[in-house]
Write a structure and sequence with these properties.
The complex is a heterodimer of chains A (456) and B (253). By secondary structure, chain A is mostly helical. Chain A contains 21 helices and 3 strands. Chain A has a 3-stranded antiparallel beta sheet with strand order 2-1-3. Chain A starts with a helix and ends with a helix. Chain B has 253 residues and is an alpha/beta fold. Chain B has a domain of 173 residues: Rossmann fold (3-Layer(aba) Sandwich). Chain B contains 10 helices and 10 strands. Chain B has a 6-stranded mixed beta sheet, sandwiched between helices. In chain B, strands 2-1-4-5 form a 4-stranded antiparallel beta sheet, with helices on one face. Chain B starts with a strand and ends in a 5-residue tail after the last helix. The chains are: A mainly alpha (456), B alpha/beta (253). At the A-B interface, α17 and α18 of A face α2, β6, α3 and α6 of B.
């Protein structure tokens, strides 16, 4: 027995001397190396997160710095005499005749009113001519005036107080974009005009206010960035989202339920599955080409219309929704299906009474994320003509789906290509609006997920 | 001797190429607890699931042979499995209440089968079912609470109440106590004994003691074959087949 107890291991241990147990208080070299590599890995992780956050902060800071000023706008308050001699020559009050006076006919009124206002407040006119003084006001102003007169023809002959947009350069001066030095080199503005604006600001003729028009006004031409707004783009984007929601959600959910719960696993369903995954990875511009070829050239739908944009974005969003829905359906435990089938529910009752309600938060989250993706998409919309300059608001749905409209991301792209630096500010402002929409949608998705998440 | 409720003849089941059940013929009596015992993978659960056609939901599963319920072939093309499952209720291994209220859990079956008209009738069905499942006294004050908030044993009794609410004739139980503690298990076993008065109960169990305690008839499955079927007392004290003897004495399985 003593020989047996001298097993090979114990004899080898005997040669190396009795194994002395080491103190736990002293860390050995091997453990030190492991701990060091763990610390290194953690440091790299933190570094990666840090770089990510830094990039995000930098991005947000630059956008906010450039864009926040677009939410404020400089206005000139001036009393304008709506001269019947200019607007209603024969005094008939006939709207058709009043409408014949173009915006050019309104310019003298503004010129006269500006001169009068400056004289009334006793401001030094810096030796500027009346035309240069009137240039402080946006070229949009005559149109504003004309629209007012056509809407209220009874006001002709009276003096009405108007809040008119200041010109882009003046607005830029109060936002710090235009300086005295830059004005010297600028054909569109002179330091004298800026000094006059300062004086007008001092007496309260000119002030900077919150810019509601940025959210409601349509786009404006290159020469009047101060009038440009997101109204048509927001409407167009909203219409497209309605189309996407109405088409992609039912189609996507129906397809996923069929594929996940009803169809038999065979070559055809495998093929469909692979194709759906592939579609999700197709570059979005390809969907634009498809939309151009199928919806516009073949089906004859109008260009630049939200219906076409919505259809294209539906195609793009469908795979996202299908993949999210199938994942949500898969996550419902099979025991729930067995329980329902076990008490004699039909396949459809099982799905609609038990599986679908449990999968709902996942489906809605997927749908909202898909919508958010579609909302921020610009490439396919460029190809179907949504990049066009649109000043007319689309009509109310459903006719409005066929009217030309812009879209938020495309409007941003459009503005960044314009020359006037005031459009850079507008584009950044539009980015903030778009980000706010996306953020809201993601928050809604999170709330839905929290609210309806159930445990089993 | 009771009437024959379910009778199976030469049943074969394949999962794709895997021959899971081979030539099983068995006659299950009404108002009797029949236990299926056997080592894991012997096919006892598969056979149980054939009796209410739950295997239909598995694409690769193929069933041959006849299973008659009161003399009618349940695999006849004219039989709607949904109707069959209302007659043959099932309780699963893991308690699986719907994530709904206790009331709705029990009322779901009667609702979809149109067994109760009006709220008061439905209330009566729910109370009767919960009483049968020996759960009424514990939950009568919180019928609107979630079924998933109950303890494991209570959840399983809720599942039994849900199964009996559709007034089935046969109740299939697939290891109903395997996820429960000894006290809850004892309650379930007591309940099974009471349920025997109304239904034919078929129970699959891994515990031979449980089979001996609750059943009158026992079937021993091994490798897809039905090795021996008879009175429980006979199977456990005087098995005919050497394989049965090896299993119940703990030498195989």
């Amino acid at each position: 027995m003593t020989v047996n107890s001298q097993s090979p291991t114990s004899s080898s241990q005997g040669q190396a001397g009795p194994r002395k147990s080491r103190s736990l208080l002293a860390v050995d070299a091997h453990t030190k190396r492991r701990n060091a590599s763990e610390a290194r890995f953690q440091f790299m992780g933190k570094l990666a997160v840090g770089i990510g956050i830094l990039a995000l902060v930098g991005l947000l800071a630059s956008i906010l710095a450039n864009g926040l000023s677009s939410f404020r706008q400089t206005y000139v308050t001036v009393d304008i005499f709506l001269d019947p001699a200019k607007l209603d020559k024969d005094g008939s009050g006939d709207l058709a005749k009043i409408a014949k006076v173009t915006t050019f006919g309104y310019k003298p009124l503004i010129k006269r009113a500006m001169a009068a206002a400056i004289a009334e407040h006793g401001i030094d006119d810096q030796g500027l001519k009346a035309k240069k003084i009137a240039a402080l006001i946006s070229p949009q102003a005559p149109a504003t005036l004309r629209n007012y007169v056509l809407a209220h023809p009874d006001q002709i002959g009276k003096t009405v107080a108007f809040n008119l947009l200041a010109s882009g350069r003046i607005d830029g001066y109060f936002k710090g974009r235009v300086t005295m030095d830059s004005a010297k080199l600028d054909r569109n503005i002179s330091p004298e005009q800026l000094r006059l604006a300062d004086e007008m600001h001092r007496v309260g003729l000119l002030e900077t206010r919150f810019n509601w028009a940025f959210f409601t006004a349509p786009d404006a031409s290159d020469t009047r960035p101060e009038a440009a707004g997101l109204g048509v783009a927001i409407l167009g984007s909203a219409y497209m989202m309605i189309v996407v929601l109405l088409l992609a959600l039912p189609l996507g959910v129906a397809a996923s339920i069929y594929l996940e719960e009803f169809s038999k696993q065979n070559f055809l369903t495998d093929l469909i599955e692979v194709n759906i995954s592939n579609l999700a990875a197709v570059p979005s511009i390809v969907f634009g080409i498809l939309g151009l070829a199928v919806f516009i050239n073949f089906a004859g739908l109008p260009k630049s219309a939200p219906i076409v944009g919505g259809l294209v974005l539906t195609l793009m969003t469908l795979p996202t929704i299908i993949i999210a829905t199938r994942a949500a359906l898969k996550a419902v435990p099979p025991s729930i299906r067995e329980a329902a089938l076990g008490v004699g529910a039909s396949k459809m009752q099982t799905v609609f009474h038990h599986v679908l309600p449990l999968a709902m938060p996942g489906i809605l989250t997927g749908a909202i994320i898909g919508l958010a993706q579609a909302l921020g998409e610009s490439a396919p919309l460029l190809l179907i003509g949504m990049v066009a300059f649109v000043r007319e608001y689309p009509a109310a749905p459903p006719e409005g789906f066929f009217d030309p409209a812009a879209a938020l991301p495309v409007q941003i792209y459009n503005w960044t290509t314009r020359g006037d630096p005031a459009f850079v500010e507008r584009a950044s402002g539009a980015i903030i609006v778009l980000l706010a929409f996306l953020l809201t949608m993601n928050i809604v998705a999170i709330i839905l997920r929290r609210r309806f998440e159930r445990r089993w | 001797m009771n009437d024959i409720k379910v009778s199976a003849r030469d049943v074969q089941v394949w999962y794709a190429d895997n021959h899971a059940i081979k030539d099983v013929s068995v006659e299950i009596e009404d108002k009797t607890v029949t236990a299926f015992i056997g080592p894991s993978g012997c096919g006892k659960s598969t056979f149980l699931r054939c009796i209410n056609r739950m295997n239909d939901t598995i694409d690769i599963c193929r069933v041959e042979g006849d299973i008659l319920l009161d003399g009618e072939d349940i695999y006849d093309p004219q039989v709607d499995p949904v109707q069959l499952r209302a007659k043959v209720g099932m309780v699963f291994q893991k308690p699986n209440p719907f994530p709904k209220s206790i009331y709705d859990n029990v009322a779901y079956g009667p609702r979809i089968h149109g067994l109760a008209s009006g709220r008061s009738e439905l209330d009566a069905v729910v109370e009767k079912s919960l009483r049968r499942a020996a759960l009424w006294d514990e939950v009568k004050d919180r019928l609107n609470a979630s079924g998933t908030g109950l303890s494991g044993g209570q959840q399983q009794r809720l599942c039994i109440a849900r199964a009996v609410a559709t007034e089935p004739e046969v109740l299939l139980m697939d290891e109903p106590a395997s996820a429960l503690d000894p006290i809850a298990t004892a309650q379930i076993e007591e309940l099974i004994d009471e349920l025997r008065e109304k239904f034919a109960v078929v129970i699959v169990t891994h515990s031979m003691q449980q089979a001996a305690r609750v059943s009158q008839k026992t079937a021993f499955f091994h490798l897809g074959n039905l090795v021996e079927y008879g009175e429980t007392s006979q199977i456990f004290t005087n098995p005919v087949d050497p394989r049965t003897e090896s299993y119940i004495t703990g030498r195989i399985g």
